[in-house]
From TrEMBL:
<feature type="compositionally biased region" description="Basic and acidic residues">
    <location>
        <begin position="17"/>
        <end position="37"/>
    </location>
</feature>
<feature type="compositionally biased region" description="Low complexity">
    <location>
        <begin position="313"/>
        <end position="327"/>
    </location>
</feature>
<dbReference type="Pfam" id="PF11882">
    <property type="entry name" value="DUF3402"/>
</dbReference>
<dbReference type="Pfam" id="PF07923">
    <property type="entry name" value="N1221"/>
</dbReference>
<feature type="domain" description="Far11/STRP C-terminal">
    <location>
        <begin position="461"/>
        <end position="817"/>
    </location>
</feature>
<feature type="region of interest" description="Disordered">
    <location>
        <begin position="313"/>
        <end position="397"/>
    </location>
</feature>
<comment type="similarity">
    <text>Belongs to the STRIP family.</text>
</comment>
<dbReference type="InterPro" id="IPR012486">
    <property type="entry name" value="Far11/STRP_N"/>
</dbReference>
<dbReference type="GO" id="GO:0005829">
    <property type="term" value="C:cytosol"/>
</dbReference>
<dbReference type="InterPro" id="IPR040185">
    <property type="entry name" value="Far11/STRP"/>
</dbReference>
<protein>
    <submittedName>
        <fullName>Striatin-interacting protein 1 homolog isoform X1</fullName>
    </submittedName>
</protein>
<feature type="compositionally biased region" description="Basic and acidic residues">
    <location>
        <begin position="363"/>
        <end position="373"/>
    </location>
</feature>
<feature type="compositionally biased region" description="Acidic residues">
    <location>
        <begin position="374"/>
        <end position="393"/>
    </location>
</feature>
<dbReference type="InterPro" id="IPR021819">
    <property type="entry name" value="Far11/STRP_C"/>
</dbReference>
<dbReference type="GO" id="GO:0007010">
    <property type="term" value="P:cytoskeleton organization"/>
</dbReference>
<feature type="domain" description="Far11/STRP N-terminal">
    <location>
        <begin position="42"/>
        <end position="361"/>
    </location>
</feature>
<feature type="region of interest" description="Disordered">
    <location>
        <begin position="1"/>
        <end position="47"/>
    </location>
</feature>
Length: 839
């Protein structure tokens, strides 16, 4: 991707402490006051991360608010056709056989050549998939009948028929050319595609979600559907590849009328259904480690993250100023109270309070938390001069050591028991870390090294023996390390080891289909993510992602404009949610399937400027984004289809819902942070990109979101670049450093808080990416190149055997045999002397 395609975030106006440079004057304190109020009032977010939101929320996000009038249209087309078949009865009153007969009739009607008639039938099928809402009284009834109808439609083969119609619409060159010529594309240009994609999405999402009251035949249908989608049964390739093709065609401006939000949602749910969600991924990882005879995982990462509690965000500059002023006011009041108490009673001069050192020592021993308090004050990120705060005023000292009352500065006991009893993660050590530790120790004590030998400890002192024992106790061998080692063996001994047995998993089938056009798919997804990001500015040459949300007639009233504005913002948020979840799923599944499949996707993302794009996304008021209320509850499906529509007012639109946060936006932020972590983990060149793009202040602002999982991934990103940020940054951000220590997994021998890492040499960065690229290309060539064994194939040197081989000739060859003989043999001069010359 070209530099102008992927806009790099403008973050040069951020200082090292994470605050924007603002003009001096009164406005500075006003802005800081707002910041401090927002950070002080930010509550803990009760958010549970998962594969998706609730079923109702996921179904409602399929439709834009502009499509709301089409619900009635679907109902009308269904009832118009259903009257002649049902003879006055309703759909929910029919027997199962009668329902099957009617669905078969609709399936036959989909085969007609008339485009308008096909669309009417498709809308009737969509009404069935939506749960025949006109015959239901509650939203629960709608979801019940939607589930019943979807499994019925799948059983009757509707999905296969819809797939053929979708392929026809994708290849409809007339619709594509007319859309390209249009100056403004609206909802009407994608009607057929939207109806087809809506039915397929409803079927996908309904079948994917399991419920307790599922019938046995539904469970069997789910497994069958999952296997069909993941295997190359549809046109010789997985269904997800057809949707990837739609994405690239849209981003290349060849089909600007494609409803991209629906395509991305369907693509995400297809990958989620066929490959599996995060819990299935964890089970697959445990099974893979068991097959490779690796020790079990030290903990379940999903459970550990869910049990974490959010930390208080680092204080802003205004909060620290207020704290200092309060402390000064408190000192003045205590000093005046002490002076007043001395005026009539004490014979000593006012300026000579006597303090006994042993009394102070006694008090310090009596308070077990005093040293912790002092240390906390030293570690406060921007507390000003810690030396001043650490001193105790002589007058305050005398007040403190009065014997009768207990000291007022002690914390209440309830707060003390909140300290965690242990770190949440078990520490890990790589084989490479043990080798590096032994190499350093041998050089120091013996004067020579033994290569990769980690067993021989001769000549090393006893503490080194104990250290090596501790390191080996926490040694962790990943699946990726085994895969890399196996790949090196296959490259070195292709004849001895023979062909590798590749397991035909859904992830393997998807990777094999994506490989030829992988870079195009990645660039297209990042282009859509850039267009949907709230920090992006509209450009004339950027792609138009609003084709399936803008109405034919633009709004003329303020209320309509507000509704459309909410709809557009919601539309962009859903696109970001789908892309972030899709990319994260692909990275995680490809990493488990084979590390080099993960590395090639990662490298394409990095080369397409994914790292600055994600940083650009977070370079905004992230609290406002997470608490955004771009939704109108009364217009959400299925609520709008069952209940009477109230009159919308500007006040009701502004109020939004009553939720504390927007689930999809927080979900998107966590996904993007996880993607950034996966791209940069153990990659020094990419870590330096975080440093170059000044990501530390951006990430530090994201810590204001009091949600444990989001804070964990922010702290991970800060940890890997801490050693490059300088001593002053570490000194002024000690609260952040403490949070990293408490929440992020420890790697023994990893001096992340210092700058002593020998692997951080700047001249290795380009070589690192090039070496990785070579390894990826060798892997793809060995595993997927059909002609890879041409050099090693045995050659038949026997003339009789070669001439005796049977050659398949076309049936009509004997008619032209004499002509072929004349042209290819007799008329060609043969240089017999060439056979006698040495090569």
């Amino acid at each position: 991707m070209q530099a102008e395609d992927m806009e790099v975030p403008i973050i040069s106006n951020l200082n090292d402490n994470g605050d924007r440079q603002r003009p001096k004057g009164k406005d500075v304190f006003k802005d800081q006051q707002k910041e401090s109020e927002s950070s002080m009032e930010s509550p803990n977010l009760e958010f549970e991360y998962g594969d998706t939101d609730t079923l109702t929320a996921e179904l409602s996000e399929l439709y834009s608010y502009t499509e709301e009038p089409e619900f009635a249209l679907n109902r009308d087309y269904f009832e118009e056709d259903f009257k002649s078949h049902a003879r006055g009865r309703r759909w929910i009153e029919l027997t199962l056989e009668e329902q099957r007969a009617y669905v078969m009739r609709l399936l036959d009607a989909l085969e007609v050549t008339d485009r308008d008639k096909r669309l009417k039938v498709a809308r009737a099928i969509l009404y069935l998939a939506q749960g025949v809402f006109d015959e239901c009284d509650t939203e629960v009834d709608v979801l019940h009948w939607s589930r019943h109808n979807v499994f019925l439609l799948y059983d009757m083969g509707i999905f296969t028929a819809l797939l053929e119609l979708l392929s026809m619409e994708i290849d409809n060159s007339q619709a594509c050319s007319s859309a390209v010529r249009k100056p403004a594309i609206s909802l009407a240009d994608s009607t057929e595609l939207r109806v087809l994609l809506s039915i397929m999405y409803l079927m996908m999402e309904t079948v994917r979600v399991q419920t307790e009251d599922d019938r046995p035949e539904w469970t069997a249908a789910r497994e069958t559907f999952k296997n069909e989608l993941g295997s190359p049964l549809y046109n010789g390739e997985p269904f997800a590849l057809l949707l990837f093709t739609m994405v690239t065609k849209f981003c290349s401006m060849n089909a600007p009328h494609f409803p991209m939000k629906k395509v991305l949602l369907l693509l995400w749910k297809t990958v989620l259904f066929t490959l599996g969600g995060f819990e299935e991924l964890q089970e697959m990882k445990v099974g893979s480690r068991r097959r490779l005879d690796l020790p079990p995982l030290p903990e379940d990462s999903i459970k550990v993250v869910r049990a974490m509690r959010a930390a208080s965000p680092p204080a802003s500059a205004m909060e620290l100023i207020e704290q200092q002023q309060q402390q000064k006011r408190g000192r003045r009041s205590r000093r005046s109270a002490f002076v007043d108490s001395l005026e009539g009673d004490s014979p000593y001069p006012k300026k000579q309070p006597l303090v006994k050192q042993d009394s102070l020592d006694t008090y310090n021993e009596r308070d077990p938390f005093k040293n912790d308090d002092a240390r906390d004050e030293e570690e406060d990120p921007e507390d000003g001069d810690s030396g001043i705060e650490g001193e105790v005023d002589p007058l305050d000292r005398d007040v403190i050591i009065q014997p009768p009352p207990p000291p007022p500065l002690l914390r209440p006991p309830a707060e003390r028991v909140n300290f965690p009893k242990g770190l949440p993660w078990a520490p890990k050590v790589r084989e490479k870390d043990i080798e590096h530790f032994l190499e350093t120790s041998r050089n120091k004590f013996i004067g020579f090294t033994l290569g990769n030998d980690t067993e021989t400890l001769v000549g090393l002192p006893r503490p080194i023996h104990e250290s090596v024992k501790t390191l080996k106790q926490h040694k962790y061998v990943s699946i990726a390390e085994i895969q890399i080692k196996r790949e090196e063996e296959l490259q070195q001994c292709p004849m001895t080891l023979g062909e590798e047995e590749v397991e035909e998993t859904p992830a393997e089938a998807l990777y094999l289909g994506m490989l030829p056009n992988l870079s195009q798919y990645v660039i297209a997804l990042l282009k859509l993510l850039l267009a949907a990001a709230p920090t992006s500015k509209a450009k004339t040459d950027s792609i138009n992602i609003l084709a399936d949300v803008l109405p034919e007639e633009m709004p003329i009233t303020v209320l309509q404009s507000m509704k459309l504005g909410i709809d557009v913002n919601r539309h962009k948020e859903i696109i970001v949610k789908a892309i972030s979840a899709l990319l994260l799923l692909l990275l995680k599944h490809f990493k488990l399937n084979h590390i080099y499949q993960f590395e090639i996707v990662s490298q394409h993302l990095v080369f397409a400027n994914c790292i600055p794009l994600i940083l650009k996304f977070f370079n905004q008021n992230i609290m406002s984004y997470i608490s955004a209320k771009n939704s109108i509850c009364v217009l959400d499906f299925p609520h709008c289809a069952v209940h009477e529509m109230p009159e919308l007012t500007a006040e009701s639109l502004e109020a939004g819902d009553n939720n504390q946060f927007c689930w999809r936006n927080l979900f998107s932020c966590i996904n993007l942070l996880r993607i950034l972590n996966k791209l940069t983990k153990w990659k020094h060149s990419r870590t330096m990109m975080l440093v170059v793009f000044k990501s530390a202040p951006i990430l530090k602002r994201a810590l204001k979101v009091k949600q444990a999982m989001m804070q964990l991934y922010v702290l991970k990103l800060l940890k890997i670049q801490t050693k490059y940020l300088g001593r002053q940054w570490r000194k002024s951000n000690m609260k952040t450093m403490s949070a990293i220590y408490q929440k992020v997994r420890h790697r023994l021998n990893d001096d992340w808080a210092y700058g002593n890492d020998i692997d951080a040499r700047p001249w290795d960065f380009q070589a690192e990416e090039c070496a990785l690229r070579e390894s990826i290309e060798r892997f793809n060539s060995r595993r997927y190149d059909k002609n890879r064994n041409g050099d090693f194939a045995p050659v038949d040197n026997c003339l009789q055997s070669v001439l005796g081989q049977r050659v398949d000739l076309p049936e009509d060859f004997h008619y032209s045999y004499e002509m072929w003989l004349e042209r290819e043999v007799f008329s060609q001069p043969i240089q017999w002397e060439g056979l006698l010359q040495h090569p």
